[in-house]
Design a protein that fits this description.
The chain has about 230 residues and is α/β, with parallel strands linked by helices. Helices cover about 25% and strands about 25% of the residues.
């Protein structure tokens, strides 16, 4: 993994970050050293609204506006660890949100292409990532269920919103040996699914239960389902 300067220069959130890594990640089975180092190097408090900064390292998802959330740290770590990124790989992320997951992925991969359907979130995430120096993340505004065929194939795809079924365009954009992780289910009950591509075969496995905001788009929910 490429070394970059640590971003917690003020020291204000260092104890919270250390506690998050130990209690929320290590004790819950996240042992991948590269993933832990990537998360340690990303200032999570920079990705939440100012009024939520005192909770930035808590074990909960937090609202970021527009009905969207930043996922809890454990889910970010678990999804990242599941796709086993290598330094030279290219990743597609669906659902940029505030940009935190993309920032973590950028510490492990060569390039991250991220799609966000809400223009205001896409713009703010892009500006935030650029300001913080995550220069290998490329944010695009559009329908994430369509993927980004112009940049395919991808070594890994991470979907940070819940789909009623696996979007076919994303499967088509997964390269040989590629891995995709996404939550599948309805608005109340979802499971993380890991899909691995080997030749013409797709190996699917279920990891654990979760709860994400809905994936809206042509191959997802047509409108955010009522809760």
């Amino acid at each position: 993994m490429r070394r970059r300067p640590h971003m917690l220069d003020s020291g204000e959130f260092v104890p919270e970050l250390a506690r998050m890594i130990e209690t929320q990640l290590r004790r819950r089975g996240i042992s991948d050293a590269a993933v832990l180092a990537a998360i340690e190097s990303v200032p999570r408090h920079e990705f939440v609204p100012k009024e939520s900064r005192d909770r930035a390292y808590d074990d909960v998802p937090l609202p970021i506006g527009g009905g969207q959330t930043i996922s809890q740290p454990y889910i970010v770590a678990a999804m990242t660890a599941a796709i086993h990124l290598l330094p030279g790989e290219r990743v597609l992320e669906i659902g940029t949100g505030c940009g935190y997951q993309a920032a973590v992925l950028s510490r492990l991969a060569k390039e991250v292409f991220s799609v966000e359907r809400r223009p205001e979130l896409a713009l703010s995430a892009s500006e935030r990532l650029a300001r913080l120096g995550f220069s290998n993340v490329h944010v695009h505004c559009g329908d994430g269920t369509l993927g980004m065929p112009e940049f395919a194939p991808f070594d890994a795809i991470l979907v940070a919103a819940a789909a009623p079924a696996v979007p076919e365009p994303l499967l088509a954009q997964l390269g040989e040996g590629g891995r995709m992780i996404l939550p599948v289910g309805d608005t109340e009950h979802q499971e993380l699914q890991l899909i691995e591509k080997r030749g013409d075969a797709l190996r699917k496995s279920t990891l654990e239960g979760c709860r994400f905001v809905p994936l809206v788009g042509y191959h997802g929910w047509q409108e955010p389902p009522s809760r």
